[in-house]
Amino acid sequence: MQSVLAFILFIGTSTLTLASPHPCVNPITGFSCSGPWNQKIPKNVKLAANSAAIVENIRQDKVNYYNGFAVNTDEYSSPIFKVDKHTPKQKWTYVNCLNLTNYDELYNEIKESLASVPTPPDLFVSKGTDASVAIYQPSTDTYWDFWRAEQDPTTKKWSTCWGGMIKNYSRNPGIFRNPIGATATGLPFGAFLIRIEELRRGYINHAINLQTVRVRSNCNSWPATRNDGWVEGDDIPCEGQRFRLDPSFNVSTLTFPAARVIARAMQEYGLILTDKAGAVVTQAEDPRIEMGKNGGIDPYFKLFDPMDYVVPDGPEKYVVLYDLPIERLQALPLDYGKPKP
What we know:
- By secondary structure, this protein is α/β, with parallel strands linked by helices.
- The chain contains 9 helices and 15 strands.
- The protein has helices at about 1-10, 50-65, 105-115, 190, 195-200, 255-270, 290, 300-305, 315-320; strands at about 70, 80, 90, 95, 115-120, 135, 140-145, 150, 160, 160-165, 210, 240-245, 270-275, 280-285, 330.
- The strands form 5 sheets. Strands 2-6-7-10 form a 4-stranded mixed beta sheet, with helices on one face. A 4-stranded mixed beta sheet has the order 11-13-12-15.
- A hairpin with a 6-residue loop joins strand 8 and strand 9.
- It is globular.
């Protein structure tokens, strides 16, 4: 990876004309325009008093863990299956893969979500140990996502370690009720994943997500409903906390066109910390649904690196954001944007 990064330091920049973002009408996330994901951040927004210290801890995570800011795609992200009303329904099984002692309580929380899931025959989950998947059915306006989902090779039945369902998806702000939902924060993949379509059209009009290594213990900031933080300290980022890229940063200086698209979204809509990870990353939808339609070609190869600077194909997701200055992130106050009671 270091050799790839060293190589692209010498790449010249290319130009890209960004399309003008549309107002929030039928947002690609599918969630309500009034939710946190589809709301722009005012340029003069008040920052957290310890913003610089929080961002410095994220920068340290970047340096100490692979020295990069990556975009997770087919591994440790999620595919999003959009299914029609004819998709066969299946009752999924809850598997207590973490051996938690409150099985009955947890089953009561998730059983409705598993009772009748539209499950396409070609359903697959993300690579990696998370084995995540998201399903949306427009005809019922219902959304599901699952974590550690698995299909029995003999019975073809599906099971999951956790997940959840959101009814009235288009009127939901993009938040699972506690304690359901596949992510550690109860924030759905469908709300924040970068879409292939967005990179092609040249703009993202919703907040994206951020994951980092050290997240603050016993701290969740709206819109998160829970957390799996493990590090003490007021200057450690809190799950659910919102960030943005300094709006004075000139995104045209970034090497890769896709990086400029992502950076613009980070300035206008921000990033929300959705989970801990083994490195500093954001997430984009799993490309394998698209690959099944185009002969198996990963669309991110060209979307992230249209000039073929990175050879051979493969590392693009690790280097597309290599020159985005993570130290220019800004932390917003905890519970930023939380509706008043």
